[in-house]
């Protein structure tokens, strides 16, 4: 009987190793492994928090949570603090910790949130690989307040494997990002070498042919072709710039200034403070600035715009202002299209915000603020 049990355990361990080796999708993997692990240990419930460098946690997987914890879209699991996450963030959790009382469960009981299925405590194991840490694995069972040494050792062994798998998936994600970036670069280069050159020849040919004819109506048509191809060329240039944010190596101001020039806008710049902006913030400002300039060009009917950037240790502020036609904009309204909404989204992703101020007949001001750490 003992032998059979052992074989079953080994089979489950093998299943876990396989899941961890093969998966490329983090959340699917964590859920699968957690289910297997509970089966292996005979515990009833488990959940995994992934915790980022800022100490913010996210529920990444859960199996068989009691209803007191799953109410309102698992609200009790996604909000507030708890002892295990706090200990992890203080760096006091380097190995499996035997049973801890659970703040989330205590609160659920206190507020009468519903059934806790007799669970009051849980064990906590950090997920790490080398000196990188990723989060916590928690497991529990009804009325269980202590795990055996053997159970803890098993949990630690599996957690180590999970940590290594998370690291691998993160590396793959980074690599994919790199592939996408170089693909975009390639596309930009190809567009530049092919379509752009063709449009350029078309424009020159139209111009040349126009000189060869005396027929006014043909001249007019050729002039029109010349104009159209020039416009297409300019749009193409802008598109290529968006694909490949080159220019950023010389800093955000330089890049945006050149982008404005590509669009045919006259840009007045005003820079204050020492610009030592982290790369990811710069990339975001760059994208938002591009869209703001696109809008100046497309909608404002103005040939110029002002770019102001101000930075100190705590915050960077970028403002793009045109004195064009302006438009009706209300903060509460859902944004009508992708451009403005995209600006907001991008800024919020890095903890910043965008303020849009526009008055019909007077112009538009876009202000972006991003806190720096
Ligand atoms: N600088 C601006 N000047 C005038 N109107 C603008 C400006 N920026 C945006 N708008 C108005 O807001 C609308 C939404 O802009 P946006 O979300 O960027 O979408 P899109 O540029 O694709 O139309 C535009 O269609 C335009 O009417
Ligand atoms: Mg737009």
Main sheet: strand order: 2-1-5-4-3
Please give the largest β-sheet.
5 strands, antiparallel
pLDDT averaged residue by residue: 89
The CATH topology of the largest domain is given as: Beta-Lactamase
In total, the number of strands is 10
Low-confidence stretches are: none
What is the approximate shape?
elongated
Q: DSSP strand (E) fraction?
A: 15-25%
Order of secondary-structure elements: HHEEHHEHEEHHHEHEEHEE
Count of separate structural domains? 2
The helix fraction, in percent, is: 40-55%
Level-2 CATH architecture of the largest domain: 2-Layer Sandwich
How far do the termini sit from each other?
A: 59 Å
User: In CATH, what is the class of the largest domain?
Assistant: Alpha Beta
Mind telling me the CATH superfamily name of the largest domain?
A: GAF domain
Written account of the structure:
By secondary structure, the chain is an alpha+beta fold. The protein folds into two domains: 2-175, GAF domain (Beta-Lactamase); 249-373, Histidine kinase-like ATPase, C-terminal domain (Heat Shock Protein 90, 2-Layer Sandwich). 54% of the residues lie in helices and 20% in strands. It is built from ten helices and ten strands. It has helices at residues 2-22, 26-41, 67-78, 83-89, 103-110, 149-212, 216-243, 252-262, 279-300, 338-349, and strands at residues 45-51, 57-63, 97-101, 121-129, 132-140, 266-272, 304-311, 315-322, 353-359, 363-371. The strands form two sheets. A five-stranded antiparallel beta sheet has the order 2-1-5-4-3, sandwiched between helices. A five-stranded mixed beta sheet has the order 6-7-8-10-9, covered by helices on one side. Strand 4 and strand 5 (132-140) form a beta hairpin. The longest helix is centred in the middle third of the chain and has 64 residues, at 149-212. The chain is elongated. The model has no long low-confidence stretch (mean pLDDT 89). GO terms for molecular function: ATP binding; phosphorelay sensor kinase activity; protein dimerization activity. It catalyses: ATP + protein L-histidine = ADP + protein N-phospho-L-histidine. Its EC number is 2.7.13.3. Residues 186-373 form the Histidine kinase domain. This is histidine kinase.
